[in-house]
Specification:
about 50% helix, SBP_2_dom, Rossmann fold, about 325 residues, 6-stranded parallel beta sheet, transmembrane helix
Length: about 325
């Protein structure tokens, strides 16, 4: 019987591996096709501007919303958006996509910053070749990118800090989960959050861990923190999947009465806010970021000078805000 179970398990693993492999090659083929289409200008008038939007993760809801905003704005401005990104978050793959996009000579590139010297060099190379680059979501300030369009992540961290201090008025022992220790937007959110918490009496941050931008990772880290720190009564997540993962980690640790705060507007986050398991979330506007980035490119193509940074406002959504239609 044990041999039979082992054989079935092996077959199952082989099937999973095959599925992942097929998805990988399919995505690679799709990306290569997109790059070729950029070069050929397939299906677009000769006067249309070709813009490449490189996402951090291809099918991430945040980036799909940004794509939608960019595509809708581009249609009004006589531009064509070609959207691409890694299947899973992978800085090396994101760099390769930037390299391929530059080789295809589009009219402009929109890309997330990843705070990496090699990435800076590729952005600089694009600009040297006459391809303007704007960063979205996270900046690459040390590069020659022309402008950043997105959230003011330092201020967003402060915004969440002020809400936590007001919401947990008697004080808090806080754990923090960030998506990545390397991501500049995560670093800035944490910096802003710390600056507020450090000034509040009876509030302290006692642990900071990384989820690797994974719901499972956030759940494991939250469970570990809660088991290690018996007095922890607040956990904050700074990437989109962190707060739902933290809720799962609380359940695994057998802990209740822990206030959870997060980032972004996911269905799982909304549901948990409505059910009282998440107190609030900082909501960004990815569609507006995409739309505004295209608007800035339109200005650039007309010869206008762009601001170095253009911040898109964020809002706090709690249960009351959701009941009133998400106007925090």
């Amino acid at each position: 019987m044990s041999n039979r179970k082992w054989s079935l398990g092996l077959v199952f693993l082989v099937l999973i591996f095959g599925y992942v492999l097929i998805r990988f090659f399919a995505a690679s083929t799709r990306v290569d096709d997109l790059v070729q289409r950029i070069g050929r200008g397939q299906g677009v008038s000769a006067s249309a501007k070709h813009v490449v939007l490189i996402a951090q993760e291809l099918d991430n809801p945040f980036w799909r919303e940004m794509e939608q905003g960019a595509v809708e704005a581009a249609a009004k401005q006589g531009m064509k958006i070609d959207y691409m990104g890694p299947i899973r978050i992978d800085a090396a793959e994101q760099t390769k996509l930037l390299e391929k996009a530059i080789a295809a000579q589009p009219d402009a590139i929109l890309v997330q910053g990843i705070h990496d010297a090699k990435y800076d060099q590729w952005i600089d190379k694009a600009v040297e070749r006459g391809i303007p680059v704007l960063t979205v979501d996270a900046d690459e300030a040390d590069s020659r990118r022309l402008a950043y369009v997105g959230t003011d992540n330092l201020e967003a961290g402060k915004q969440l800090g002020r809400f936590v201090v007001k919401d947990a008025a008697e004080g808090a022992v806080i754990g923090v989960i960030i998506g990545s220790e390397l991501a500049d937007n995560q670093r800035l959110r944490l910096e802003g959050f710390r600056s507020v918490i450090s000034m509040a009496p009876n509030f302290q941050i006692i642990d900071v861990r990384s989820s690797n931008i994974s719901r499972v990772g956030a759940a494991k880290q939250a469970e570990a923190m809660l088991k290690e720190h018996a007095g922890m009564n607040v956990i904050v997540g700074f990437s989109a999947l962190d707060a739902p993962g933290i809720v799962e980690g609380m359940q695994a640790a057998g802990r209740k009465n822990v206030h959870v705060y997060g980032f972004d507007d996911l269905e799982a986050t909304r549901k948990s806010i409505a059910e009282g398991r998440i107190r609030a979330t900082v909501v960004q506007q990815p569609a507006e970021i995409g739309s505004e980035a295209v608007a800035q490119l339109s200005r650039l193509f007309k010869g206008e000078k762009l601001p170095r940074q253009l911040y898109i406002p964020t809002a706090i959504w709690d249960a009351e805000a959701l009941k009133s239609g998400g106007e925090g």
